[in-house]
Amino acid sequence: MHRLWLIFAQTVTVAVAILFVLTTLKPEWIGQRPAIVPLQEAPATASDDAHATGSFRDAARSALPSVVHIYTTQEIKMQRHPLFDDPIFRHFFGERPDSTPQRNSGLGSGVIVSPNGYILTNFHVIEGAADIQISLNDGKTYKAKVVGSDPESDLAILQIKADKLPAITFGQMDNLRVGDVVLAIGNPFGVGQTVTMGIVSALGRSHLGINTFENFIQTDAAINPGNSGGALVDVHGNLVGINTAIYSRTGGSLGIGFAIPVSSARSIMEQIIRNGAVTRGWIGVEAQEITPELAESFGLPDTEGALIAGVVRGSPADSSGVKPGDVLLAVNGKAVKDPQVMLDLIAALTPEERAAFRLRRDKSIVELNIRIGKRPALRVERE
Q: What pLDDT digit, counting tens, does each position of 41-96 carry?
């Protein structure tokens, strides 16, 4: 009896061991499934309007309808070969017709600034265009006309025959700081409306040689060809700049993009809509930066100011006694740090008004009261 009990106990022990091994290593052999590790899932939002942490969907949704695609066509007339006008050539070969003009297409972006069809964009987007087509966010296309442009700031105003358009909300430059998140909206490479994100890398960028008047917002939000004229908006979807240029060695974005501040764009836009052009002050001088070498050569105490290198004959500066070699120190009490600041200060003056100019001539300070003239329009050379 004791022997039978021993055999039974051994059999049960072996069976339990086999069952344990199968349950652990091959549960499917005995019809069991492995336990599922519980996963944590985010709760489904009640609607698409719910706020998403870290998302800028509301800003994009607000601004996207106000950004348009701009398609331009330029007619390039081929030059007639001089041989065609030679009498001997015409005698043997007859009259040769003028070459058929070639057409060149371009693209860019723009921003709807009023419900009645005004659109703000870059001048270089529509420069020389024979035909301009505007494609809205909803797919509708309109033919646009140029209301006016300002090549020196690279801005232009277009208008389409439409109303109740989704105009963008203008932001405040006073609230913009380095490090703020911004979104760039446009039509890069013609792929369609695109939103990129970055931060404000710097403010007041100038001396870049892009425009005559420069006061750029620098951003690392991706800006590529086709983004020009598009919107740079803040996290609320308000317009803070017009995307204008990039620094690139390849033609693509390297994280250094430039936008015209909304404060400058708005002032220029209002002048163009009201007067058809932008009026700036002018006195007729050519200035250059004062380097340490120049300061030593002219015996100047520092490099502050703008060295007057030339004076236009018959200009307001010439009539008031400004001479080459003078150093302009201040305009209406505002310090002139360099030629760019001088240009901006004079341009902001109203033609026909008088302004106080402070200059250094040799070792003395000269105070002049100059009647401001109107800055001549920039002539744009086209090939």
A: 556 554 455 455 678 999 999 999 999 999 998 766 555 555 555 565 554 445 55
Please tell me the predicted confidence (pLDDT) of residue 253.
66
Question: So what's the pLDDT on residue 367?
Answer: 94
Between CA 232 and CA 158 the distance in angstroms is 19
Residue 326 gets which letter from DSSP?
Answer: -
As given in the structure block, the two tokens for residue 362 are 């040799």
Contact assessment for residue 216 and residue 270, using Cβ atoms and an 8 Å cutoff = no
With beta carbons less than 8 A apart as the criterion, state whether 247 and 160 touch.
Answer: no
Within 26-122, where are the H helices? 57-63, 87-93
What is the Cα Rg of the chain in Å? 34
DSSP 182-216: EEEEE-GGGS--EEEEEEEEEEEE--SSS-SS--E
In the chain, which segments carry CATH 2.30.42.10? 281-374
Q: Which residues are catalytic?
A: 124, 154, 228
pTM (two decimals): 0.74
User: Cα separations (Å) of 37 from 200, 263, 375?
Assistant: 44, 56, 75
**Around Cβ 42, how many Cβ atoms within 10 Å?**
5
Tell me the one-letter amino acid at 89. F
CATH architecture of 173-275: Beta Barrel (2.40)
Kindly report, residue by residue over 255-286, the tens digit of the pLDDT. 789 999 999 999 999 999 998 889 999 999 99
DSSP 139: S
Predicted local confidence at residue 383, as pLDDT: 40
Q: Enter the tokens of residue 128.
A: 């020389």
> What CATH number does domain 281-374 carry, 2.60.40.10, 2.160.10.10, 2.120.10.30, 2.30.42.10?
2.30.42.10
Given this model, what pLDDT does residue 261 score? 94
